[in-house]
Write a structure and sequence with these properties.
CATH architecture: Sandwich
Number of domains: 1
Distance between the termini: 46 Å
Structural class: mainly beta
Shape: globular
Mean pLDDT: 83
Largest sheet: 6 strands, antiparallel
Number of helices: 1
CATH class: Mainly Beta
CATH topology: Immunoglobulin-like
Low-confidence stretches: 11-28
Radius of gyration: 19 Å
Length: 156
C-alpha cells in the first residue's frame, strides 16, 4: 500500500506557494502600523482612531468605512488664537514610502454615529479605499484594536 504522505506534502506545498503569491500581491498596497481606537462610553456617538499609513507608491486615500460606525472621516486639528479647530479632510495624499501619521491632537479618523460602544479589548474593522497614480481603485481591510493608549503592535 502506497503512503499518502508524499501526496499530502505536495498539496501542502502548493497551498503554501499560493499563499506566498497572495501575500506578495498584498505587499504592493498600504502598510498600516500602530492602529488603535479609543474606547467610548454608552451613548457616545463618535470615536477616534489612529494609525500610521505608508504606501509603496504615490496614492490617495479616498474613503473609509467601518463595521462599527455609519461613517468614517479624516479630520485635522489646528490651533488658531488659542482655539483648537477640527476640520474634515476630503482626501489624503500618500507619498510613496512616507508614512502619514494619524495621531491624537493631529490628523485622525473620526468614527461617526457609532453602532455600539467601543470597549477595551474589542476589535473593529476599517476599510481604506484608495487610488493609485494609474487611477486603480483598491480597498484594504484592517482590524483595529480598541485600547486606552497607542502602545499598539503593527496591524499589517
Amino acid at each position: 500500500m502506497k503512503s499518502k504522505i508524499p501526496q499530502m506534502l505536495r498539496l501542502i506545498v502548493s497551498f503554501s506557494m499560493a499563499a506566498v503569491a497572495v501575500s506578495a500581491h498584498a505587499a504592493g498596497s498600504l502598510t498600516i502600523q500602530h492602529a488603535w481606537a479609543r474606547p467610548t462610553v454608552a451613548g457616545q456617538p463618535v470615536a477616534a482612531a489612529y494609525m500610521d499609513i505608508t504606501s509603496e507608491r504615490d496614492a490617495v486615500l479616498l474613503e473609509l468605512r467601518s463595521d462599527a460606525a455609519q461613517a468614517v472621516q479624516v479630520h485635522s486639528m489646528s490651533e488658531k488664537d488659542g482655539v483648537m479647530r477640527m476640520r474634515q479632510v476630503d482626501r489624503v495624499k500618500l507619498q510613496a514610502g512616507k508614512p502619514v501619521r494619524l495621531t491624537p491632537g493631529g490628523m485622525h479618523l473620526m468614527l461617526l454615529d457609532l453602532k455600539h460602544p467601543l470597549r477595551v479589548g474589542d476589535t473593529i474593522g476599517i476599510d481604506l479605499i484608495w487610488s493609485d497614480a494609474a487611477g486603480g481603485r483598491h480597498t484594504d481591510h484592517i482590524a483595529v484594536p480598541v485600547r486606552t493608549s497607542g502602545d499598539a503592535e503593527d496591524t499589517r
